[in-house]
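note to self: the first set is below, dont mix up w the second
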Amino acid sequence: MRGFLREIWRAAQGREAELEHVHFVGSGSLPSVFAVADLAAASVGAAGLAPTMETIFWGKAQRLQGPVTVGHATMAWDRPAAPPGSAQPAW
């Protein structure tokens, strides 16, 4: 996985030092003669490193990745940041 990640990140012209922030947990495979599970994991890791800009109410912003992973739970938002009270709560 690390080899794939390094190659993807180099192609994206990312800084080598940032690779130390990617940690792979667990193992598994997809049925294939190619290392598709490793490539998929490396691709997701590189995407997580890449700064993604989005347009929010206040202008351009970079969405940061959460510092903690709990099991398979992910932090995710359905909408970009907006002024308080601009959306109805969904309970």
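second set (the one i keep forgetting abt)
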Amino acid sequence: MPFLYFPEDKSEYIPAAITMTIFGIVAILTFVLIKRVSKKQEAKTKELEEQINRERQNEHL
């Protein structure tokens, strides 16, 4: 069996193309989900930081 195999019947590419498409879509959805969660965490962190800064300013007064 040669190192690279290029089938004569091009219909053998269909399962591989379907699998690659599915994994590509899942990868994109995962990336979008991670970005959304990251934005939510960033907003929570910023809010907590502002709260801590306000408390520190009140302590110094």
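remember for set 2: The mean pLDDT is 93.
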